[in-house]
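Job type: complex structure
Entries:
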Amino acid sequence: MSLSSNKRLSILPGETGRFAGILSGFILLLAVLPILTMIVMSFSGASNLDFPPSSYSLQWYRAAWHTFVSPDASDVLSLGKAMTTSLLVACLTMVLATLVAVPAAYALVRCEFRGKALALQLMSLPLVFPMVVLGLALLLVFDSLPLQMSFSRLVIAHVILALPFVVKNCTAAMLSIGSEVEEAAQMLGASPQRAILDVVVPLMKSGILAGMLLAFIVSFNEFTVTYFLYTIDVMTVPIWMYSRTVSSLDPTVFSFAVLIVLIDFVLIWALEKLVGEGGVSF
Amino acid sequence: MTGLILENVDKHYGTACAVKDVNLHLPEGKLVCFIGPSGCGKTTLLRMIAGLETLSGGEIRLDGEDIGQTPAHLRNFGMVFQSLALFPHMTVGENIAYPLKLRGVGKVEQQARVVELLQLIQLSAMIDRPVSKLSGGQRQRVAIARAIAARPKILLLDEPLSALDAKLRESMQVEIRQLQQRLNITTIMVTHDQREAMTMADIVVVLGEHRVQQVGTPIEIYRHPANEFVADFIGSGNIFPATVLGGGRVGLPGGESIEVPSCAGVAAGQQVRMLVRPEDLQLSAPEATAGNRLLGTVTFVRDIGSTIETIVECSGVSFTALSTPCQGIGLGVGHAVSVTIPAQACRLL
C-alpha cells in the first residue's frame, strides 16, 4: 500500500479542518449579528424601524446628542439622570459585591465547615434562577418593608446578581495561593489577619479586579430585575432606553446603544488586559 | 533548663494518630534532624513546634517557658518551608525585610540588615529582583535569609532541599551547616534523606510509627541502633535471625555458627536478631569454612561505579556485601565465595 506523503488523510491535533472553520465563522456571525444590526440602524436616514434602512444619515446621533444636552419636557426622565443612577448603582454594586466576595472566597477555599457544598450551590443560584421570578420576588420583599428604598433596592438586587461572578473569580484566584505562603507570613511575625492582608489579598489581586469589572458590567447592563424594582424618579439607562423605545419608536436608542456597547467593549478589553489569558471566568 | 523541651507531646486527628508521646530535649545551638519514613509524623511534630498545629496533649517548653499555646506569629521562630513559600509579589529585598517591617524596625535599619544578610548568602546583586527571576538555589538562600532576618530563637527547616538536584543539594547542605554554626542558632530540620541527616546533624531523632525510636549522634544511630526499626531505616543492613548457643557463639538458620562476643550475656537457646553492615563484610576466594569465614554462593552482583554490591546466599541468610572496585575479585552470579563476618561488627538487636 502506498500512502503519499504530500497528501494527508487526517488532520493533526491543533489543526482545524474546513468544516470546523465554517462552523465557527457561522457561530461568530450569530453572536455579532444583533450588534451589527444595531450599528446599521443607528445610521438610518428614515424615521421608522424598518431593516435595512432606506437611506443613511447621522440624524439619530444628532437627536441623541440633543436629548442628552437639553432633555425634552415630555421625557419622563432625562438620560443624564438615568446615566448618573446607572453609574452610581454599578459602582456601589462593584464595591459591595467585592467586599462580600473576597472573604467568602477565602472561607470557601481555606476553611472546612458544615454546609460548604450547600453554600457553594446557593452562591450560584442567581445564575440559574429565572430573572422575572427573581425580580418579582424582590419587589414583594421590598414592598413589604416599611422603608422607602427606591435607590438602595436596585443596589441590593444588583449585588445579588453580580455576586456569583465575583465569588467565582475570587475563588479561582484563591485556589492558586498555597496555604504555605500564609503560614510563612505568620512564622515571620504576622498575625493571621495581617497575613491575609499582606500576602493573600495582593496575590488575589487579578481575580479581585476581574470580579470588580464583571460586577460593574453586570450591573450596568441589567434590565429584567431592575424593571420590577425601578421607580419613576430612579431608573437606569437600560430602563430609560426601553421606555424611550416604547414611547417613541425611532432609532435614537440605537445610537445610544452603540455608545453603551463601546463602553462595554472597553471594559471587557480592560478586563482581559488586567487578568491576562485564562484569568476570567464568566 | 535551657533549650527546647517536648514533654509527652501527642497529636491526633479524630481517631487517627499522627504523633504519640514524644519526649525530647533539644539543647541550644545544635542542629537536630528529624528523620523517618513518610507519614511517621516528623512534619507534624515540626509544625507543632512552629505553632502551626495545635497540641492534642503534652507540653512544649522553651528555656523553661511553656509555649504550647502561643500562636505561631508570637513565637519568633524562623521557618523554611518545603515549597520555600517566598512571596511572589515582593522583591528579594522586600521578602527579607518583611519580618523586620512587622516588628516596626526603621527603614534605614531594615535596609542595613537586608544588605548584611544578602552579603551572607552572597546575593547582594539580587536585592531588587522579583523572586520569580531566581534559580532554585538562590531562592533557597533567600528563604533562609528571610527566616533568620529577625534573629529567631529557633530555625525550623521542613525538607528545604528536597526540590534541588543532587549536586546543588550537597553544596547547600554544607552552606546551611556553616551558617548554622556561625550564627550558633538552634535548628531543627526535617528530612527523609539519611545522608543529609548524617552529614549535617549534631543530633538525629529517628521517628517511626508516630513515635521517637532513637535519639543520638549520627554515629551512635548508625553504629548502635536501638532497635530493628532504626537498624533497618538508617543505612542498609543485613538483619538476620540467629539462635544464641552460649559461650559467645550464635547459630545461623543454615546450621553454621559464628563467634559474636557481645552475645555472651544472653541465655543459650534464645532466638535473637542480628545486624551486620554491608561494608563490614569481607569477600574472598572460596575456602573451607573456618571461624567467622563462611562459604556461600553469589546470587546477584551490581556494580554502581564507586562500589560493587554483591548478594551472597550463605547458611540460609542473604548477605549484602559492599566492596570497592579494587577489592573486587571478579565475582559473577553462581560463583562460590567466602564471606568473613568480623565478630565485632555484629550487633544484637
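Summary: The domain at 236-348 of chain B is CATH 2.40.50.100 (OB fold (Dihydrolipoamide Acetyltransferase, E2P)). DSSP finds eight helices and 20 strands in chain B.
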